[in-house]
Amino acid sequence: MGIPYRFGYYDAICGTVQMAACPLLGDNQVGYEPTCYARNIEVRNALIFQMATLIIDIIALFMTIIMIVHVRSKYTAVGRKEMVMVFYIYFLMIILDFITISGIIPISSVVYPYFVAGYLGLTSAMCWCLMLNGIVGFQWTEDGTAASLWTFRLTSLLIFGIMYFISIGTFKNVGSLTKSHPIGLFIMYFIFNPFCLLVYVVLQVIVVVNTLDEYWPLGNISFALVFFVIGQVIQIFLSDKICEGIKHYVDGVFFGTICTLLSVMMVYKYWDSITKEDLEFSVDGKGNTWEVKELLNDDDEFAPYAGQAANTVGYQGVSFAQTNSHERETPPASKRADSNDSTASEGAKQLDSAGFSVADYIDRQFPDEATLEKIDVIAANIGHRLATVKQEIRRQLREQSDSQQQQTQSIEATKTAINELYQRISEMKAKAQTSERTVLDITQDIKALDFAKRNVTQATATMRRLQLLVGAVGQLRQLKAQKRYAEAAKILPAIIGLREGFGDYKEVRAIARLDEAALALQRSLASMAVQEVQRGFDPQGLLIGDPEQMRAACLCCCSADEKAQIIDSYCDTQLRAYTAIFQLDDDVSQLENVSRRYAWLRRIQRNYAEEHAPAFPDAWRMGEELSRRFACVTRDHLSEILATREIRVEHLTAAVAETQAFEAQSDRNFGIIKREDGFAYEGSGQPAQTFGGLISCAFEPYMAVFVEGEKDKLTRLVRKYERGPLDSDPELGVLASSTEMLFQFRESLRQCAGLSTGTAMVDLANVFAQVLSSYARLVLEARLPRITAATPAPLDSLQQACMVANTADYCASAAAQLEQKIAERVDAGLRDKVSFSSSRDALLSSVNASIGALVNGVESMCESALNTVSDAACHVQAVGDQSAYVVQIASAVDTATVVVCQALSGARYFRSYCDKLAARIAARFTAAVAQCARISEVGAEQLLLDAQALKSVLIRLPTTTNSQTDQQQQPSAAYARIVAQGVGRAESLLKTVLVPSEPAEALIDRFLLLFPEAPREVFRQVLRLKGVAAADQPAFIRKLQQLAKSQANTPDLRDAKLPAHMVSGAPASAPLARQRSRMGEHTRGGSSTSMVFGPTESPIPDISAAGNSISGSMGRMSLGPHHDALGITRHAINETINTEQTSDTASTLPLSTRSKLNENLRRLVSNMRRS
């Protein structure tokens, strides 16, 4: 089943019929192609497509010209100029159709889409112009006028332009117009054009039914419609079936073109049938010639005036009265005459006027009853005028009859002249045929003579070649008897060439016998020359013959194509001693003595160059051929030895090195060089075969022995490093064992590259990866210091861990470079198998372990200080400066970080160390706070200050170096978030502890604000730190659950997604106001101190200014019975911290700003205490 017909798509239509636009549509580059189309023909090496359709187009051109001439000849027909415009457009459309379907312009040409677009535009313009012609028949406008014609021209040009640009846009994929979905082109071609034709047909049916006296023209218009519909159905739906049924001679395009032509012809026939003129005269095709159509009767007196009164131009059987614009209605009878004394001449002029009206004339002549007295005079004048006109008409008719007789006589004379001319042409044609036969006879004789000449020439040349062959055979026989091989070598090619020339004459017995004799002589001479060369060497391969005679014999054998026999004989003679000396069971043949084989060949080559070379032509390259035969025999010997003997790595390595050296030396000796397209001989540039791999390929299957040896050697090296002392390379800052091991890798790789670049190199790369993994596990990770909390790590252990990290990073970088180098040198098909990913992972794991050891070491240095956190929280009496344990932690961290920063070579590893150390110290501090038995409000405030100090210490950790300039650098945002999240957990816990337990709602509100997830365990921990009795804790927990549930249903709290680690945010004013009201923060003066910032305000105000504001307002405050100055101070500090700092924002402050914050905070606390 074919492609279904879809609206807006051409795939189904173009799959059936070959349309001009089909190759330019579709998703692919070639467009749509029909399943069956008409055959093409070749004319002068050019393909012509749709030949039958082109013939119909040519016929259509002639028919269109005829129709245009006939339409133009009907000068008085309605819509003559408008209808001829339709045929002009059709004429141009046929020309473009001829160009597009014939293949004159190839489909691949850049101008082809523009011709197709022009054809489609002319099609739509013709349909539109035909529809307008249907409107002309109703006489809604004056036909033939400038307004009518320019309306036709401009609108048709507009329709042509629209269709043209839609077509070009579709073919070029402009905007929404695409080739894959040409909906615009589809609508214009398959909907707009048929709509215009249908409107034309309907309008013409209305004209015929309402205005004409007969309905015969309906048959013409019906036939036009039927022909058009049949043509489209055949072309679109039945084209492939027609094409396949008549063997591709024609397709639906042929029948569609015929039906379109018939439809246009029927439209012309219909127009011609409804525009027959009803005047007395009509104009024929000859210019200015009038033909009498109907004679007037003598008694028909007023016919001329009736014709003048009504300019009747219309359809057959009906007249449409056309009046000028100055005509008016019949005046009333009471209108007075223009002048009572009008003369007869003025009346005659009125009668001759083109706009004469009988009623107006009578009214003007007889305006009242008194003027009726002149009726006789006026009647006489009119009668006289009528008689004069009739006489003039009869005179003109007689003259016309005389001219017709003269024309008839002229026509008869012309016919007679044409007949005479035809007779003369026939005579000339007969004479031409006679001359043609005579010329044909002459040319046949000339052709026969040409054949005879060619045969004679060929026979003469054959006889000459036969004489040459007989003479050459006789001369060769004499040279053979005299053993003159040099001269015989020159004659042999001539004999071979002459024998090949007689290949078509083998059936001639004499020639066949001569050919057999020449072939036998050639073989006999070649055999004798081979024996001559073989006798020139004794069984030991020594030269005993004449080199010049042997060289001539070689040339003779080369001409007779017996070169291979001499080469085989010589090489076998020379290598006979080699196979006898190097027996497989002898010691001299073993792998460790492979150099003796090459020494033997060098001696043979030297002997050849000194003695044997003159006996052979230089072009034979006998020395190179001998070396190749030697290489093949040696390869077979070594393969058998390797397969049957035990192989030692050192012997294999030495043998491979000797073999590769021999192969390279052989290439140099024989001038074989490598080029981009292969190997060639130096100087001549002829292609050559290299010696490389000719022998060494025998070692390839046994390179696993080499790889195993290298693996054992490197494994022993790693074990030595494992047991040996820890030493370092001061230049690189890494362990000296790593540089030594990588040097061994380089030497092994160099040696393997000289032996093989195949599977052995891939196996060696895998060995390197395994050794690196073992080195990372057994050497690097094993040398990391073992640090516990009971024993603080010395600085030497930190340097040792840094050394291990540097070494692992150095080895990982070297592994990546090693992988790249091996991938460049290994065979192309094995590059994907080279991978060091496992070894790099192991080395990076060692780096992580080293950083972990560093963090453990620094933690052990801070262990004593961290253990005093709970004691400091329990015994603090007043809020003061930062605690002593913070100073200890800062000192230990700074000291260790300076050492680590100087010892670590990679900046990214130092960043990782800082991240992990900050997270570890913050976690330990949080755990220490949580382990306190009970924390008082003063202790919580002190711990909050300590947390801020600890955060400052951790924030400046990445910039802790010996350089003062580096201290001004800012830590990264990611590191600041790590510090803020770590310390923020402890701060959130302490801020919750600061809130009084009564009322419970205030404590729960603060807890929910800082811990939105409302974890029960954390709340129990808060209650424990605040000293709430275990019996009272369930009541707090129930209130927590109730308040958490109610806030979860509140839109503003339910939608808030505060992270659990946030220290404080920018809380909304409503929750804080509610919290302050529960805590009794009211001033008697009606004012309150608020430090809450909105969501758009700056989160980092000046804390010193805030402190001064609070302290300045303390004197004006009247405290309630439940609050004292210390309580207000605590709350002010708490609110200040809550509204001033967030975990993410505070962590990104510059170091100077954070120091100023801490100082202002301490001054604030001191002022509060004094107040």
What is shown here, in short?
Residues 325-339 have a biased composition (Basic and acidic residues). By secondary structure, the protein is mainly α.
Explain this structure to me?
The protein folds into four domains: 11-274, Rhopdopsin 7-helix transmembrane proteins; 562-694, no CATH class; 702-858, Tetracycline Repressor, domain 2, CATH 1.10.357; 865-1170, no CATH class. Strands 1-2 form a two-stranded antiparallel ribbon. The longest helix has 108 residues, at 375-482. Helix content is 66%, strand content 2%. Strand 7 and strand 8 (678-681) form a beta hairpin. The model is unreliable at 277-344, 962-967, 1050-1151 and 1167-1171 (pLDDT under 50). The protein has 1171 residues and is an all-alpha fold.
Number of separate helices: 40
Multimeric state of these chains? Answer: single chain
Helix-residue proportion? 55-70%
Q: How many individual β-strands?
A: 10
The value of Rg in angstroms is: 59 Å
Which stretches of 5+ consecutive residues score pLDDT under 50?
277-344, 962-967, 1050-1151, 1167-1171
Tell me the structural class. Answer: mainly alpha
Could you tell me the mean pLDDT? 73
Strand order of the largest sheet: 1-2
Query: Proportion of β residues?
Result: under 5%
Please outline the major beta sheet. 2 strands, antiparallel
What's the number of structural domains?
A: 4
Overall outline: flat
From the N-terminal CA to the C-terminal CA, the straight-line distance is: 100 Å
Region (Disordered): 323-349, 1066-1096
Keywords: Coiled coil, Endosome, Golgi apparatus, Membrane, Transmembrane, Transmembrane helix
Domain Vps53 N-terminal: 356-721
Membrane topology: Peripheral membrane protein
